[in-house]
Amino acid sequence: MVQEKIIAMLAEATDTDASEITADTKFADLGIDSLDMTEMAMDLEDEFGITLEMTPELNTVGKLAEAVEKLTAEG
Amino acid sequence: MRRVVITGMGAVTPIGNNVPAFREALFAGKNGIDTITKYDVTDSKYKLAGEVKDFDAVALLGKMTARKTDPFTQYALVAAQEAMDQSGLEGTIESDRFGVCFGSGIGGIETLCTEHQNLLEKGPRRVSPQFVPKMIYNIAAGNLAIAFHANGPCTAVSTACATGATAIGEGYRTILHGYADAMLCGGSEAAINPLTIAGFGNCQALSDAEDRNAASIPFDKRRHGFVMAEGAGVMILEEYEHAVARGANIIAEVCGYGSTCDAHHVTAPDPEATYVAKAFRDALPEGTDLSRVYVNAHGTSTPLNDKTETTALKLAFTEEGAKKLHISSSKSMTGHMLGATGTVEAIAAVLALTSDTVPPTINYVEPDPELDLDYTPNKAVSTPLDVALSSNLGFGGHNAVVAFKKV
């Protein structure tokens, strides 16, 4: 569910077909830079009611989805 | 002595979103001023502007670029693409011999307003990380350098309403003195919003007319303020031998530049017009036949500007000489594009020169006895031209005049 949301956001922002984005897709490969990542973090915070600190380790769709899911579970 | 020529031009304006459309409207005397559509003006004192029409940033630039740029950069990118395509320069020049001199009067004020609203309503954690790199006024120059691989000198000039002319003049000197072989020059503006309109309105600079044909009326006795507009203009300047060697289409030559400051008052021009006159004299090549000169005047439609410019032309070229000049203000059609205006009007001057046709000052109805030069009222005039000048005067007292001749 979180991963689908992230994929939808990325598809919208980069004008890419959602079917081309998977858990292993690296943000850099989509032409996403650190400014875009911060902006996406803001949208995820609003969507899931969490506080998300972006780090360089969160460099794929799957890793970011996992981090968001963990924060959401923590409430 | 190096020579500098124009090999490409691009424009996004209230009367056309490319140079061919702009040219047709310019000579036909089309009025691009209308009721503001960007926000509700029902309760506003100022209801008119020269808006750019039918500009779809997503379709023209793609979703990513459109989202990450302010409209002033979007207009710049589109105008620059047209100019670059016309020049055929891409891939024919060492990237570090290609530079950018591109400015804006105000920069990304729409972005500033949006993000300030975010700050007030949602707090600092919701101010977009794109805010600064979308807003800062040099960022159009930076984006242009990225888009067209220009690793040479890249500067963003800002001389308020003279910006677009200063950018051409400084780019011209950059090539003339050997620092680059080609320069992408111009100006851009996208500042039609309630904050800017309120600011200029309270400076008593804007027309509050509701009749679109009686608002931007340069040199007319009824003139009472300018009409805010937006857009972008780009010129590709190139060293003459470089252009010839690659078989480029040479449009015209840049043959002079005058740059002075009134050092008098922040908003009002010096009524003596001493330094506007000097800029005109510095720009015009000696020995030019004044009856074969076109002046695209700043002609803002404010009472003071149009009087000062008339005084300056008389001071520069004598009363008798000034009366020989063909003068007009394309702001009667476009309104005042602030930082973009100088480049768009330089393009108008070049189009006039190369087609031996003087574009009109439209909506000229009531002559002002004090302003007694030939302002080319209402209809374009065919006449042989040797030189075209474009003059712009900005808040801060900046005066810039650029001169063009046939090659």
Please outline the helices and strands:
The complex is a heterodimer of chains A (75) and B (407).
Chain A: H1 2-14, H2 34-48, H3 61-74
Chain B: E1 4-12, H1 19-28, E2 34-35, E3 48-49, H2 57-61, H3 63-68, H4 71-87, E4 98-104, H5 109-122, H6 131-135, H7 139-147, E5 154-155, H8 163-176, E6 182-189, H9 194-202, E7 231-239, H10 240-245, E8 252-261, H11 274-283, E9 293-296, H12 303-322, E10 326-328, H13 331-334, H14 341-355, E11 357-358, E12 381-382, E13 387-394, E14 398-405
* CATH-level-4 superfamily name of chain A: ACP-like
Low-pLDDT stretches of chain A are none
Query: Roughly what is the average pLDDT of chain B, rounded to an integer?
Result: 98
Radius of gyration of chain A: 11 Å
- In CATH, the architecture of the largest domain in chain B is 3-Layer(aba) Sandwich
Number of contiguous helices of chain A: 3
CATH fold-level topology of the largest domain in chain B: Peroxisomal Thiolase, Chain A, domain 1
The largest contact between protein chains, plus residue counts on each side, is: A-B, 12 and 11 residues
SSE-based structural type of chain A: mainly alpha
Secondary-structure element sequence of chain A?
HHH
Compute the number of strand runs of chain A: 0
Extended strand count of chain B: 14
> In the CATH scheme, what's the topology name of chain A?
Non-ribosomal Peptide Synthetase Peptidyl Carrier Protein, Chain A
Number of domains of chain A: 1
Structural class based on helices, strands and sheet pairing of chain B: alpha/beta
Rg of chain B computed from alpha carbons, rounded to a whole number of angstroms: 20 Å
3D structure, described in words:
With 75 residues, chain A is mainly alpha-helical. Chain A has a single domain (2-74), classed as Non-ribosomal Peptide Synthetase Peptidyl Carrier Protein, Chain A (Orthogonal Bundle), CATH 1.10.1200.10. Chain A is 56% helix and 0% strand. Chain A has three helices and no strands. The two termini of chain A are 16 Å apart. The relative contact order of chain A is 0.20. By secondary structure, chain B is α/β, with parallel strands linked by helices. In chain B, α4 packs parallel to α7 (139-147), α8 crosses α14 and α11 crosses α12.
